[in-house]
Write a structure and sequence with these properties.
This protein has 452 residues and is α/β, with parallel strands linked by helices. It has 20 helices and eight strands.
Length: 452
């Protein structure tokens, strides 16, 4: 998980609220200290931590609890609202103007921040949403930069304009200018430096003046922590940065510092990188992000991932088949494929409201992912007839599938059992018009305590 330690600490703090009998001044002071400790460990600036914790303390002790909720619930609400405000408040999304051909996004940043990789992530993000993308390499100082951008672009099957012989960035941009109108979005890679030097400022200023990019994104590595603030302010004054892309947020203790540092500048965080793959990118939504940190989930991000994995038409067709009782291995295979596209189970669990706070062992989630991979291999080893009607899979067929897929008889029986349980549940739901009755019916068949 992104900022794993911070999330664990904050969840423990909320657990303390849930277990408390009374919400008094002593409890509030304890909670504020816990929050301060958690944020300082995540490398958040000391002054910002004290400003936030004082705001939480003041609201918790002074504000009147609204009717209809308990003191404990209101205290949790205060923590959630103040942390959200602390990280920028509202989501600052890039709205692509389709009337512009192309919509230009220029990427700036220092060496090693991950500009090229971030460009490939943004390219894939918008490519999946139906936009026609092209990239252009204007980093004329780092020898491998143009080739790296070309390779990343080739993997996504998108055009990449480079000229490795030319050492003037503006000339390269002008060379291919006639081609840009064919694309919806043009992603522009620029040169970096070890620090923001005068020559870099001059180069970025001249490019910015000619290109007139619609968005100028500063790429910052999450592991630089509080130093992100100085970088954001410096680049903002140099070329008018409109937003920030924070990379390497997974597995870094300093990510909290980078996030909060950018939030207090005039450059809102637009994207965050949550892993090494091209799909590991998220539009930064402070509300959803804080929801995940506190174990409350992020339903908006979950729905977005679901829409990427399976179109509305596919989901509707599958739903109709399941309710008719026509559910077979082909449909189950589609479900497993869609889950694979949505990312790791541990990341999905964080987004499900109510599940983020449940301390599900990492080993258990990894075991489930392995199981899904094996089920996919088993189904790939079945004949068309077996996929369309799994009921015909006999002992002899199980032996054959086990040999063909390199799995065990027990694993195939487990898959068949899962299929039958899912089909049985769909038959129960069939014809039920009242959602409440349907949920009561389903809960009655679930293990004790699951409904709660």
């Amino acid at each position: 998980m992104v900022l794993d330690k911070l999330g664990s600490s904050l969840k423990d703090t909320l657990a303390k609220i849930a277990k408390s009998i009374f919400v008094d001044e002593k409890l509030v002071h304890e909670l504020v200290k816990d929050i301060q400790r958690a944020l300082l460990q995540a490398d958040v600036n000391v002054k910002l931590v004290f400003a936030l914790s004082n705001s939480i303390k003041k609201r918790a002790l002074d504000e009147k609890v609204p009717a209809g909720i308990s003191q404990r619930e209101y205290l949790v609400t205060i923590v959630y609202e103040e942390l959200t405000k602390f990280l920028g408040g509202e989501k600052s999304e890039i709205i692509i103007d389709k009337t512009k051909k192309p919509f230009k996004i220029m990427m700036v940043g220092l060496y090693g921040s991950g500009k090229s990789t971030s460009i490939s992530k943004i390219a894939k993000y918008y490519q999946k949403r139906g936009f026609k993308i092209a990239t252009i390499g204007l980093d004329v100082h780092r020898p491998a930069a143009p080739e790296q951008l070309k390779q990343l672009s080739d993997k996504l099957n998108i055009p990449c304009y480079i000229n490795e012989k030319e050492k003037n960035a503006l000339k390269i941009y002008k060379e291919f200018e006639k081609n840009y109108k064919d694309y919806d979005i043009l992603l522009i890679d620029t040169a970096g430096r070890d620090s923001l030097s005068e020559d870099l400022v001059e180069e970025l200023s001249s490019l910015n003046k000619y290109i007139q990019a619609d968005e100028k994104l500063l790429v910052i590595s999450g592991d630089i922590g509080q130093a992100a603030q100085k970088q954001a302010e410096s680049f903002h004054s140099a070329c008018g940065v409109t937003g920030v892309f924070i990379t390497k947020l997974d597995g870094t203790a300093k990510g909290g510092g980078a996030l909060s540092a950018c939030a207090v500048t005039q450059a809102p965080v637009k994207f965050i990188g949550t892993g090494e793959k091209a799909d590991d990118i998220e539009v930064f939504n402070p509300k959803g992000f804080v929801g995940r940190l506190l174990g409350m989930g992020d339903i908006e991000a979950l729905l977005e991932k679901a829409q990427e994995a399976m179109s509305e038409k596919e989901a509707e067709d599958l739903g109709k088949k399941m309710l008719k009782g026509d559910f077979n291995f082909l449909d189950l295979y589609e479900q497993v494929q869609a889950m694979g596209k949505m990312g790791s189970l541990s990341k999905l669990v964080e987004m499900i409201p109510g599940f983020g706070g449940a301390k599900i062992p990492k080993e258990m989630l990894e075991g489930q992912e392995e199981k899904l991979k094996k089920w996919k291999i088993i189904m790939q080893s079945c004949t068309k007839e077996e996929l369309e009607d799994p009921e015909i899979i006999s002992r002899e067929r199980i032996d054959r599938i086990a040999k063909g897929s390199g799995t065990t008889v027990a694993e195939i029986r487990e898959l068949l059992k899962q299929y039958k349980q899912t089909k049985k549940m769909m038959k129960m739901v069939k014809g039920t018009e009242d959602p409440e009755k349907m949920m009561k019916k389903l809960k009655g068949k679930m293990p004790k305590g699951f409904g709660r």
